Amino acid sequence: MIKCVILDDELLAISYLKLLCEQIENVEVVKAFNDPKVFLNEIGTIDCNVCILDIEMPGMNGLQVAELISNSKKIIFTTAYKEYAAEAFDLNVVDYVRKPIKKERLIQAFEKAQELVASSQKKGFIEWNTNIGKTVIFTEQIAYIKTSEIDSRDKEIILYDGTAIVLKNLSLKNLLEMLPPKDFAQVNKKEIVALSSIKVFSTNEIITTIASGSENFLKLQIGEAYKNSLMEMFGK
């Protein structure tokens, strides 16, 4: 499922894009914005994987917006001006769709986006801004993830060797989409665990293989909203 957010300074263009998206299977418009600054303030908390950005906007154009979010979202540009094409593809975006937008052309762009989203979930690593700079983290090394106690927008990853790395400004939902779905599970509102780190689990609690103190292992409380999905993963 493609969950997309639209950014265009023209309300008529937003309405038209929404109408086209509603006619395309497996595409959902989560939210739409006509102000780049409001968009940037909120995009980190929205569950989406594709952003459709208009390039020509007053104040801040789509190219400038894309530079700030391209490491976390797949981007489709829309514009009436062909002279932006080279700059757009320098940003490694999914596609560049000329206005007036046709449904068939938009479908092609979404198909490309779907392939990229699927491949990013299979590639075996996460690339993100962290407390030590832009970092590549191999998912097979991740034992446990929790929301930072210092800043809830950040997420702390614990590797199997005990190394801790802080991912900057990333929601648990978006992080979970980057991880191989068969290998990780969210257990409550603040924590994700690698299934290979689970030693024992009951209906309310997980005991992991992760050391916590001199003789203890980390225990996680299972949230009510996550019990059924956890049970399904273990065939219960």
From TrEMBL:
Q: Does the keyword Transferase apply?
A: yes
Q: Please tell me whether the keyword Iron is annotated for this protein.
A: no
PROSITE patterns per UniProt = RESPONSE_REGULATORY
**Example of a GO MF term:** transcription cis-regulatory region binding
* A GO cellular component annotation in the UniProt record: protein-DNA complex
Cite the entry's keywords alphabetically: DNA-binding, Kinase, Phosphoprotein, Transferase
Ranges in coiled-coil conformation: none
Tell me one GO biological process term.
Answer: regulation of DNA-templated transcription
Ranges for domain Response regulatory come to 3-114
4-aspartylphosphate occurs at which residues?
54
Q: Name one Pfam family in it.
A: LytTR
Give the source's domain of life in one word: Bacteria
Q: What's the protein here called? A: Histidine kinase
Species per Swiss-Prot/TrEMBL record: Chryseobacterium soli
